[in-house]
Design a protein that fits this description.
By secondary structure, this protein is α/β, with parallel strands linked by helices. The protein is built from 8 helices and 17 strands. The strands form 4 sheets. A 5-stranded mixed sheet has the order 5-6-8-7-12. Strands 1-2-4-3 form a 4-stranded mixed sheet, with helices on one face. A hairpin with a 4-residue loop joins strand 13 and strand 14. Helix 1 packs parallel to helix 3 and helix 2 packs parallel to helix 3. The radius of gyration is 20 Å and the shape is globular.
């Protein structure tokens, strides 16, 4: 028997960005399927691999003893042949402000099915545009994804901001035998709202306070009876590299769901505007009645596909990232997804249920 033919992936369809590469590479590694990806990031202003995509690919290649052809900055085609998943320590450094959270997205599903515990040392930007902020990863993604019966330890050594990056986060994970399915269809009622407005480097803490108060004022207009507690902090100089600011606000519900809104400051952008943007995003996520917010939606797809049994998640409108993740998860795993409009009378009109019969991947390395 020769090697199986690689699965052909068109990286230019649907969302057309780095997400296609992250989802397909992780699943290739888990299912032992070789991949040939073409038209990488065809939908972006600078197509092809950027430093963060390449460092993520190299980390997955190393953690599964795989082989890769075409891995250079700017490549629009890559062939990836996975081997056996190894635990241990793996380092990925974007050398830019490329997001450590996106590096984590590609490697984390893989190390769950390793033979031994793993430590991922990820270097780059911790609070970057066009990616989840590290605070979101810790405050929302971690507790929600742990519902699949896994544990994720996330240690923020140093924060790093655009344009230089320089942040470092250490992710520690133990392997699982199998992932449990989840049911996130009952959002319950919002019981508390809390958050964190931060500045680092050359910025005064007053900016963080302004972001926080603007956000609280905005939320109060819609939600009057709940305490909204947003801490304003200045990151310690030895724990942050560069200058940056931003805010994340999280709503907790009676059934243990977490939904968030966040925003980043940048030069010339008014602090009140940053706070209001995050508050509006949170309120939008609360209005649609889903049990997860718009940013968690697509990040759960790969775990639903791998879990052992039927997972159900109630969301707001299905994002293009989610449609893309579902498309490639089905192509590579044989998991079956269905998306239906939520029919409950109490549901707002734009709530949906994503169901998936997962493949029940077994960790044969354990």
């Amino acid at each position: 028997m020769g090697d199986p033919e690689p699965v052909e992936i068109d990286g230019g369809i649907m969302e057309g960005g780095g997400q296609i590469l992250r989802v397909t590479t992780a699943l290739s590694c888990l299912c032992g399927t070789p991949l040939h990806v073409k038209n990488i990031r065809a939908g972006r202003s600078q197509p092809g691999l950027r430093p963060q995509h390449l460092s993520g690919l190299k980390m997955v290649r190393d953690l599964c003893n795989g082989q890769m052809e075409g891995g250079e900055i700017g490549s629009t085609e890559v062939t990836f042949v996975p081997g056996k998943i190894q635990g241990g320590t793996h380092v990925a450094d974007t050398k830019t402000a490329g997001s450590v959270c996106l590096l984590m997205q590609v490697a984390m599903p893989c190390v769950l099915f390793a033979a031994s515990p793993s430590e991922l040392r990820l270097k780059g930007g911790t609070n970057a545009e066009m990616a989840p902020q590290i605070d979101y990863t810790v405050m929302v993604f971690k507790p929600m994804v742990e519902k699949f019966s896994l544990t994720l330890d996330c240690d923020i050594k140093r924060r790093g901001y655009y344009p230089k990056g320089g942040g470092e986060v250490i992710i520690r994970m133990s392997p699982v035998k199998q992932l449990s399915p989840i049911d996130l269809t009952d959002r319950g009622t919002v019981t508390k709202i809390h958050g964190r407005a931060f500045v680092a480097g050359a910025l005064p803490v007053k900016l963080a306070k302004d972001m926080a108060s603007a956000a609280v004022r905005c939320i109060r207009k819609e939600i009057r009876d709940l305490d909204v507690n947003i801490k304003a902090v200045r990151e310690l100089d030895n724990e942050a590299f560069g200058t940056g600011s931003g805010i994340i606000i999280v709503a907790e519900t009676s059934t243990g769901c977490l939904l968030a809104g966040s925003s980043l400051g940048k030069r010339g952008k008014n602090a009140d505007k940053v706070g209001i943007e995050a508050a509006e995003m949170l309120l939008g996520n609360l209005r649609h009645g889903g049990a997860v917010d718009d940013y968690l939606q697509d990040q759960l797809i790969i775990f639903m596909a791998l879990a052992n049994g039927l997972s159900r998640v109630k969301t707001g409108p299905i994002t293009l990232h989610t449609k893309t993740a579902i498309h490639f998860a089905e192509q590579l795993t044989k998991a079956k997804f269905t998306v239906t409009k939520s029919e409950e009378d109490a549901s707002p009109k734009d709530a949906y249920i994503i169901e998936c019969q997962g493949v029940g991947l077994l960790n044969t390395n354990l």
